[in-house]
Design brief:
With 180 residues, this protein is mostly helical. It has 5 helices and 2 strands, in the order H-H-E-E-H-H-H. The chain has a two-stranded antiparallel ribbon.
């Protein structure tokens, strides 16, 4: 009976030690294989939210978790590229806006008369062109467009298409001011 009791104690002891080792191994594996990649994914999402798009991917052994981490990493690289492009576009837009303001100032302050038009008609005219024709506004010029001798309708469309096709067009036109 003593031997039997001693064997039972040994078996229980071995089972306790084995169970403890199994539980420790399970906790270690769970932390290493599951919890760490999930924590990294959470940190990566926070980093993306804060603008840090370059967090390296840790080694991950579970295929599905690795795929999620890899997709997240590729997403952050793509987001970094888009952010960079957006920054360049913003710089280009600011530069274009500055150039447009300069061109507008040149257009308005020029001593020559200028009009901007499309086949649909006059868009705007600078003050010198209005003065040349004795007009007060671009609206008045728009209303008297044909009367002043400017091309209109199909002639204007053909002229405009010629400019688009060849890069230029020449046409001699006799213009009249409102007094003839």
């Amino acid at each position: 009976i003593e031997q039997h009791a001693s064997a039972s104690v040994t078996i229980v002891f071995v089972m306790l030690v084995g169970g403890t080792l199994f539980i420790l191994a399970f906790i270690f594996a769970q932390n290493r294989l599951i919890a760490r990649p999930i924590r990294w994914t959470g940190r990566k999402l926070l980093d993306i939210q804060e603008g840090n798009l370059h967090t390296p991917v840790p080694s991950i052994r579970i295929t599905e978790l690795y795929q999620v981490a890899d997709l997240l990493d590729r997403f952050s690289e793509h987001l970094a590229e888009l952010t960079s492009r957006a920054s360049l576009l913003a710089e280009d837009a600011a530069e274009k806006k500055d150039l447009e303001a300069l061109m507008s100032a040149i257009f308005q302050l020029s001593v020559d008369g200028y009009a901007i038009w499309t086949p649909e008609g006059l868009i705007t005219a600078n003050q010198e062109l209005l003065r040349l024709f004795g007009l007060e506004s671009a609206d008045e010029m728009r209303a008297k467009w044909s009367e002043l001798g400017f091309l209109s309708g199909e002639e204007l469309e053909n002229f405009y298409q010629s400019v688009l096709k060849d890069g230029f067009a020449r046409r001699e036109t006799y213009l009249r001011n409102v007094r003839g």
